[in-house]
Queue: 4 jobs
Job 1
Amino acid sequence: MDKEKTSDAKQHLIDYSFAAEELRKYGEVELKYLSEVIKSGILSNCLGDGKMSQRFESAFAKKVGAKNAMAKNNAMSGLVEAVSVSGAGPGFEVICDPIVHFGGLAAVFFNAVPRFADVKRDTYNMDPDSLLANITPLTKAVIVTHLWGQSAEIDTIAEICRDKGIFLIEDCAHTIGAAWKDRHVGNFGDLGVFSFQEFKQLSTGDGGMTVTNNEELFDRMRNAWWFSGESPKFLYLNYRMTEVTAAVGLAQLEKVDNIVNNTYNKTLEILNNAIKDCDWLKARNVPKEAHMSGYWWSCTWEGEQHNLYYEKFKQLEKEMNIGLRFGFNLYPAYEFPFFRESTAYRTQPDCPVRCPFYTSKSNYRYTWGLTPVTEDLMQRLITVNLIFLSIPEAEKMADRIRGIIKKMEI
Ligand SMILES: Cc1ncc(COP(=O)(O)O)c(C=O)c1O
């Protein structure tokens, strides 16, 4: 398939006016909690006296069934801190999946080496067999992404990590309300990291939450977090959430089930229905153990097996202005210069702890063929971000999808 390296992420800009009025509904509840914060005279939880942050943390922990939660300025910070507390650093490897880049980036923050496991063709989530094949004596942590609202095979992955003594970080940025065997994601590993950025199921503009059921780990992280001047016991960062953000978070938490169940899950179903009789647009497989939480809709192009041309489909899609996104990032993370050219390690070329994959001692290379399933899959992915898509808009989109299917089959 065509190897043009441009992302079409910016092509589908969103009309926010509708979102503000109809979908996200920032309003009275947010204002009530914000007013409480302003009246309290304290806008930070830096010394542990931020009442709103603590209320949000307790409510969020309860919502996802975790013992503890720590509010963060965003999910990327949560992932970076998770890598730090895992002990990964120079000379260690962190296994990530290659469709999104956040796990790999978090590893590089601590000069650990991202190693990419392949995903499953039908679910797009990490393949436990590929994870196993990528474990080496240097593996310190695994960052598994529950992609686009759907849990990875997280019980199997957690068991592998427990057996091998590997720290497990769950990237739950897309998965508030998602579960595996009735257990909310974020509870299977050592840490689970959620995102509240504007384009997620729960929004505080920017924000995140790290959850854990490990009390010892929680105490260590919280103590490090509340340091007030002296250096922490391990490399830890002031990635806190402010009280103002927590007020919006607490209000949004009260609404999130309603938004997910009554909008995102419905729009997901509407788009799935549009392709249900089509042999060459294949819906994402949701295993029976997974409870999905609507976030992005996705399917794969399988047209060549039916003598159909993808380029023709893309051209028609443009003409009909449907709003589909092709390929997501188009290529796995290791195909991008940041990883491929080892940008992060290059700053000090003579450093003795330079990325081991670029020394003669290692035969691991970021080359095409590293994760063949992902490489093929990413070219075929067709997606729609559901966050700002209303039900009437999804219905219109579904009609157009049915229309393009007919046109292709003439
Ligand atoms: C899978 C995944 N992880 C982490 C992040 C980072 O989230 P944040 O923007 O809150 O830092 C994102 C953001 O889109 C994401 O999609």
Job 2
Amino acid sequence: MRSFYLVVALLTLIFVTCQHSVARAIRSYVLSRRSRLRTRDGVLIFAVLLCANILLAFLSMNSGWAPADSQAQKILAVTFFTYLGVTLALAIFLVIIKTLYLSLSLALAGYRFLLIIVSGDLGDTPVIGKRETEGRQVTCAGSSPDSGHAAVLGSDTTHIPVLKRSMGAFSLGCFRSGIRPLACEQTIRRVAVAIILLFVAGGIYGVMEAYSQPKNEKFEIRDTKLHGLDKPITLIHVTDIHYGMFYNQSDLKRLVENVNSIEADAVVFTGDIFHSPQTNVESAPAIFRKLRERKFGNLAVMGNHEYYAGEKRTVKAMEEGGLVILRDEWLTLDSGTARIHIAGLDDPRKNWLLGQEFPNFARMMENAPKDEGFRILLSHRPTVFPLAAGNGFDLTLAGHTHGGQVIVPWGKSEKGWSPASIASIYTYGWYVEGQHRMYLNRGAGLTFVPWRINCYPEITVFALMPS
Ligand SMILES: [Fe+2]
């Protein structure tokens, strides 16, 4: 528990530091205040941001202050975490720009030094350009002739330092105080406002996509072990609902209605149905009881968030909601002369990042049916894939990564780049190893930020049939 509070304190400090640097950048680039912020004022702003963050985080995560199923708590949480995400993204963007600027400055300084050596004039600034001026004003590109900041040159030739000239050519010299003519200030301000608006627009779009209708993905799975089925067996796969902070009762009801509208023989939930200890878990059973009865039932496994929210209360809520929880247990479905064995693996209960080992997998395998059949593993974490492949499973259904909630079409892979790849080699979609397949669902709900960009929520339907 102590490590949990340490992580929360560290994250709070990171987020507040990001907001502080974004506020300073706005002061400098949007409000054009060039003077250094006094230390006392800087500390005061940091303290105000810290207090505001703690208060808003508390109000976002606790629903006790608002009426049950109130939209107010969800709107506050979505707005606050969108703000956190936007300021974090802006701070990362600032770091990238400043790093690029610093690298370029160093490169140009090296270039200048080289020119000085080549010119052999170590005493004066080397002359690299002459300009006939006759008293005209010389401004940086795009500035107006009447700019008050333009340098008035009275001599008929001007020696322009290499560094400043080169930086002007790259338009990055505008960042340096002392060579920031008025027109450059206006350009910088416009660019800064445009970048901020772009990030805010990205945040708003992310919220809209996150709360859009889940995409119904459909796949056929053909296998020789499914010979003998009198008709295809259909499974609906739902994962990572995260009922709680960003996903309230109306969202859950809408999801249940959506699932009920799909014909299938079974529904499988692969964990993280609930979000946190503050989640109103007790309100969920009434909604889950509205799930249609299925021929092979509504099945579930535990995710890491079920342990965060409280093992006993989440198990009770799922059972009262009519879900059959497979806790390192097996279930066999018979259809025609074919057999389908479904195993449900308990989450290893470690934190979301470090649970790469599955100590209870061996115990689950001890209870494995001895007879032939098509074997399906339900596991919250996809990192079980090599273990499942090595133990004769034909199909694994997993969740946990949410697809990273943002997918950037980037790189050689058709899956693009997703933040999930920072923590997992499995991000979303299909993975195949020999005869074994794994489908990693992008999830229905949200965690960390209430955004999805190019990563729609998902409900997946599998039709199992003979090859
Ligand atoms: Fe999750």
Job 3
Amino acid sequence: MSVADPPISTGERWADRLICSKTGESGELDRPEFLSPAGAPWLVHYRLDAAAGPAFKAALAERPWNLWRYRELLPVKDWDRRVELGEGGTPLVRLERAVPAGIEVWLKDESGNPTGSFKARGLALAITRARELGAVGVQLASAGNAAIAMAAYAAAAGLCCRVAVPVDAPRTVIERCRLHGAQVIVAGRNLAESGVELARREGDFWELSTLKEPYRAEGKKTMGLEIVEQLGWSLPDWIVYPTGGGTGIVGMDKAFDELEALGLLAGRRPRFVAVQMAGCAPIVRAFESGLEHAPPWESPRSRVWGLRVPRAIGDFLILRALRATGGTAVAVEEERIEIEQKRLACEAGLLVGPEGAAAMLALESLAAEGRIERGQRVVVFQTGHPGNYA
Ligand SMILES: Cc1ncc(COP(=O)(O)O)c(C=O)c1O
């Protein structure tokens, strides 16, 4: 454990309840909750007051550069029993080469997280909360990084773990999950079918799939908090994010709301760009059609595993964030990914995963169209290490 200081408030948590993201109904914080009665994601609500902002900001100066520095904005009850493997505190790197001329591009490189991806942030919180609320086992369906992260954090917490992966999931993912002691069910042609298979199994396993419990979004939220700090308490003009279930967009949007409520942020919000693959782009299609929800993608096809998500339970939250910020959604062609990974390695010394390459390609398209303008500041997410899919 690295953070020994007490919360800057009076020792209480600022988190006070759950809120249904659809209806606004309240839920109890310290009870196991998955989806709300309306079938929508629960989000954690905090009591926030601009008077507490300056002390919160000052306290950060004394704390280690990792996810747990934002403790007042995290929902953990038993602080000393948090499950920590060194997550968060990732670099924000200014790119000078291999980027569109005249645009200030920063890469938020999440590949240095434990288990090699940003999924560590969400699963650190979800597993911490699952254990403190009484879980003995956890499960989810995933084609890649979420499975590896859950297996690792469950091992660290001493919880049983079960994952379901599609039949064509990379071998590395299956082996890494087994290495961490997880039971791996290989079933289904895609995430939705693997999920159906998982639901058929018995046992006391809590479901930790994206936005089907309230805490992974809290972990992902810290990416937004870090960006604000790394940019000197300011915001970029754009955030380009490879989007599957969309926890990152939902989480960062929430982070900015919370910093604003603390009086630590004002002004125009960054425009979110949701990046998906042309072979599985439900959010892009719904955005372009003006829909509030995204109908499931019928035959998802992509080797960019993190983006092969045919249906997002938080679709309306992602779409709302894109529209409210004046953002957009971009689909990227599969065959451009590998070329982009090679280009970035060769021209800029960057080793990016396919999802990060997709985000960089979206940046280039938006810059070429003049949508992202010269002089603007853009944060692009590189979310996972390519080695996880080897
Ligand atoms: C490397 C990578 N990038 C992006 C995503 C999509 O993330 P989100 O669920 O936050 O949209 C995933 C999800 O699996 C992933 O593994």
Job 4
Amino acid sequence: MVLPRRRLLTGAALAGLAFVLPGCRPSSTPGERKTAEGEAPRGVRIDLRHAARAGAESFEITRVAAEPLWSPPAPHREAPDWGDYRLSLYDPATGTLLWRGGFDSNLDPAAASAVAAISVRCVRPATPCTAVIEKRRAGAVFQALLDTTLDPSNAGASAPALLSRIESLASNGDASTRFDLAILGDGYLESEHPKFIADARRAAGYLFSVEPFASRTGDFNVRAVFTPSASSGVTDPYLEHRRDTAFRCAYGTGAAERTLHAANERALRDAAGAVPYDALLVLANSRRYGGSAYYAGPAVVAIDSARSRYLVVHELAHAIAGLADEYYLPSGHGPAYRGNVEPWHPNVTTSERHAKWRMSKPAPTPWNKTEYDARFEKYVKRYLALRAARADEGLVEKLMQLEARRQRGLLANSGQTREPGLYEGANGYSTGMYRAEADCIMFSLQTDYYCGACTGAIHRAIDAQCA
Ligand SMILES: [Zn+2]
């Protein structure tokens, strides 16, 4: 919890967008994912350089790699329309849409100048096609940032598979009909392979202990992909640690000291390409609290933190189901959202008019917000004071555990437990933005349950890969 947001609220569409994928195979329905030749569709990975400068964003393709093990989901009418960006492939002769998928980036577009290297995947076209990357704007409008030709014959080989050791942790069916989760580790020496496998089993256990993942276990394949690092542990400027690791996992600095991300996403994707995967969980062999995730990108967690259960279930939900953070850092009566842009995320909204979830309580729904804000603001100050004092991690973990219990008790007393409504305070804003229930894994520090809106979104994400 209290992970700094990559973006508080960037470009988003108006509600009711109801985008329907025309699809390259209009007759496709869930369950029909084979081609006429009986082969599952194969994928291609596009490595991108995403840059922001003086308010302007750009994308540049730096590499195209084959992803022969991955089966892209077939387009269908119920495909979630999530992500700040989307990639579309068109037939250059007819203009027919061949494939489309949404994604996020770990770049802060509000930064004066920033660059990120990310990867997106799509179906491998049979012949050269037109690839368009667009940014979601307000008013259900997408703005093209890249329009280029994608030639599948230029797709090089991916995945230095020889460097990876693969262990199946759960196998429930063919990759083209299951949600495939790949768990990778960073900052593990070759001699720490047994620890990585134990950590990966622990992380999978965390995920499948929570609904709806618990009841969907049979829809998942889980594979642990081990890539040794030259150093044990990961880079942490706060602790003045510099480590030489396979994926360059590193904590942020300053106010972002809790952001832990994989700086070398290309190496990460290369290693992950040794297995079919629909989502990536990266275990940083580190204790200090931290993590990050973005939709369709990797979720990264400090697996040795006392709060690693929370980090796994919270961060993976961002990556898999496009969920926004529901929490906010209260400050006085703010921060307030005063815009009119409805976020695309399925678990937050600006108004009941957008009706992303059924409400059984009147809107806005009363909850003990004043008490919560005062309590949480005090906690945040304590957390920051401990960090400023370079306190032992054990003290920080103790504070967080205590706060998790307090929050659970306080929110359970809100009088609205598990009643869907319109609870003010979400997506980084204290006012002007709403969530579906008083409590949720995306709101507080608890690890017991996702709210109904988040649960529905996770089901949709799993369904999209299992169709
Ligand atoms: Zn939720």
